Amino acid sequence: MRFLVFIFVANLTSHLCFAQIDVSSELLLAPSATDNSQSPGLESGRYKVKKVKNLPSKKAASAQATGPAESGKPVVLPAATTTTTTVTSTSTTVKAASTKETSSPVGQLLFSPQTQSQNQAQEAEKKTNAENQTQQEMAEPSVVDQVRDMMDGKGQTVVEAYKEQIHPDDIRLNFLEVDLLPGVVSNNSKSSYSYRNYNTFSPKMLLGAKLWLTPFLGVYGQYTTTMGGDVVEDPTTETRSTAQHEWTELGFNVRKFFGMSRKSNSLQFGIHLSEYKFKVPGDSQHRVQLRSSGVGLHLLTRIPVAPSYSWTFGGKVIPRIQHTELGTGIDLSSGSNGESSRIELMVGGEFKLSRENQILWDLTTSYEKNQFNGSANTLDPESGLMPRGVAVENTFLIFSLGYRWGQ
Contact at 8 Å (CB) between 361 and 339? Predict the structure, then answer.
């Protein structure tokens, strides 16, 4: 009887010992996920299966179709494995394609480094040629090219291409320009010989025109005369007589612009023929008529500071002048012809209302030196002597304010 009680107690003790095992042992001792039976450890409230959205690869799909997926349970596949397989497959395909292309004759021709460098060189050459062609179209044609085109009578293609790049309100598009410039003239003739010593002051008027054969080549002419001037006739009695100054000028202009903008600076230069006349009454006993003529050079620079205003600076020089004294009531000669020259300096401005209408102003000073050789042929009434080596300094100060019309 005692023996049976001992066995019963031993069996009860063993059952109680198994009951002290941790609950997690059920998860560890549960059947594997590969079994068709339910997994109580993973399906408990503590652990849940998370469905994966990544699509399985072909091998996984085939394995799922034939393997454990038949039980209806979702199969978790590592995403890294699928991605690695895809990238590896793509990389292998690109390498194979690249190897195939470069291994073929056409691939070697298209993908070889030498061919690529040649293609780049050809593209660079085409780009350079296009830039050079654009620069040639925008660059001013040379004077020789312009003259040759005018002489040949061919269409001025270079000039026309240049004009197309100019703003419609640019003065370079003017073919004809007409100037009307009234103003005043102050003249001071200084000499030791009283017949050539005098001064005058009178209003004046200038009428001029420029004809531009191209935007860079042109011819011009202008005529200036004083009005209502007078001069002291007899220094002893202070009587006065009429006096008139006249200037006539014809010339050839070359113009250079430093840019395509309306505010581009420009330089104008050329050669001209100038003639100056001083007229007094033909019966004057104390004054003689004068004439000075010569060929000279002129230069004018135009500096725009705004589309509507430009400063102008210029000058003219005639290194040798033919100076002549014309007889009146007396046959006067200050001596034999010596050296004569003239120089002019000018500063001014242009108010541009439009390409066709401009307001101009300028201040010009002119200095002419006449040096005679030998002695004069008439006694000086003031000194009573016969002067020798007479020198005359004839200075003009001219102010002009007027209008220019262009077309």
Answer: no
User: pLDDT tens for residues 43-65?
Assistant: 444 545 555 445 444 444 444 44
Of the candidates 28, 24, 31, 22, which has an alpha carbon nearest to the alpha carbon of residue 46? Answer: 24
pLDDT of residue 251: 97
CA distance 21 to 326: 148
Residue type at 205 in one-letter notation? M
Q: Name, in order, each residue with C-beta under 8 angstroms of 145's C-beta and a sequence gap of 6 or more.
A: 158
Which residue type occupies 84?
T
Instruction: Give me the phi and psi of 184, to 5 degrees please.
Output: -135, 155
Under DSSP, the state recorded for 171 is G
What is the SS3 string spanning 356-375? CEEEEEEEEEEEEEEEEECE
Is 100's pLDDT higher than 70? no
Please state, in angstroms and rounded to a whole number, the distance separating the CA atoms of residues 178 and 321.
28
Nearest to 403 by CA among 349, 365, 361, 348: 361
pLDDT in tens, 306-352: 889 999 999 999 999 999 999 888 888 999 888 999 999 999 999 99
Task: List pLDDT tens digits, range 363-376.
Answer: 999 999 999 999 99
pLDDT of residue 292 exceeding 70, the answer is: yes
* Tokens of residue 84, six digits: 């690695």
Instruction: Select from 253, 162, 247, 257 the least CA-distant residue to 207.
Output: 247
What is the SS3 assignment for 213? Answer: coil
Cα separation values, 395 from 28, 79, 131, 263, 316, Å: 125, 103, 53, 35, 14
